[in-house]
Amino acid sequence: MTALLTPGTASLAASPTGPDCSRPYTLALHDHGLLYSAATDTGIDKDFADELIRRSGCKVNVSLMSRARIWQLIESGALDFSLSGITNPERDQYAAFAWYFSNKYYLLVRKDAGITQLADVARSENFQLGVIRGFRYSANANRMVDRLSGANRVSLAGGLEPLYEALLQNRIQGMIMEPFDYPVVEEKRIRDATAIISFEDPSVPHGLIMSKKALTPSEQDKWRALVDGMLADGTVLRIFKKYFNPELAAAMVQFQSKP
User: Fold this and answer.
1) How far, in Å, CA of 52 to CA of 208, rounded?
2) Mean pLDDT for the stretch of residues 147-154
3) Lesser CB count within 10 Å: N end or C end of the chain?
4) Neighbours of 127 (CB within 10 A)
5) Please, where are the H alpha helices in the chain?
6) Starting from the edge strand earliest in sequence, which strands make up the sheet with 129-132, in order?
């Protein structure tokens, strides 16, 4: 079901104020641009997970799975953690969060689709949108997804690469992207064929996802304190600067802590 990557190697002995390390934990990554690449076993979430595990002192088994599967297992309590998650009222019922960055969403469209602003999507009868199964976005982006879904004009994929191919082949005319996807967008064949339109939504906080069924509120607070410590001492900013220019990294990490 999952591909085992790198289990945490830290000792099971934890500090009195740290998380309870009396059992091993599970954390799932998802393959998504700069967040994590299964091909290279690198990315922001991989770096973040490594440091979080080190600070916790706990054994954490890290695996790879789809975003849709991650949410299912978080809800059931079969998975303790995942990363870079965003909340909504449904997810708030079964997941807790520890925020560590924020970003905006954009609509990537084919230049020949006749879409120069968001309002053009509603006026187009042929526009087909591609999204990743299990993903939610910012408010205006979600409204577009829901409206087009009701009209049977949304194509679902398991990840970014199938969406880029569908876009280049004109099977979809647009897809939703975020800063982690920019390196791929910068590839010449994609850049030449597409344009980027802002959803003009505020930045959306992303964070450590914690299963409410798997972790008690007091344990959630302990893990949240680890994340807050990584923000406070500049660790999260240093991680983001490995992947983005300093200005964008700072903008993503310096955010309001509550969505």
Assistant:
1) 10
2) 95
3) N
4) 21
5) 44-56, 67-76, 89-92, 118-123, 139-150, 160-168, 182-185, 188-193, 217-232, 235-241, 246-253
6) 154-157, 129-132, 174-177, 106-110, 194-198
- What six digits make up the tokens of 66? 């789809």
Residues 25, 12 contacting (CB under 8 angstroms): no
With beta carbons less than 8 A apart as the criterion, state whether 202 and 138 touch: yes
Q: How far apart are CA 144 and CA 154, in angstroms?
A: 10
80 φ/ψ sector (left φ>0, alpha ψ -120 to 50, else beta): alpha
Structure tokens at 153: 């004009």
Residue (of 112, 122, 51, 129) closest to 83 by Cα position: 51
Q: Which letter, b or e, does each residue of 46-55 get, where b requires 16 or more Cβ atoms within 10 Å of its Cβ?
A: bbbbbbbbeb
CA-nearest of 181, 170, 189, 162 to 127 is 170
pLDDT in tens, 179-195: 999 888 989 999 999 99
Tokens of 110: 């084919």
108, β-bridge pairs: 175, 196
| Mean pLDDT across the chain | 92
Q: Which amino acid is at 57?
A: G
Q: How many CB atoms lie within 10 A of CB 209?
A: 25
Contact, 92 vs 218, CB < 8 A?
Answer: no
Q: In this structure, what DSSP letter does residue 38 have?
A: T
pLDDT at 74: 98
Q: Which of 121, 225, 128, 228 is CA-nearest to residue 171?
A: 128
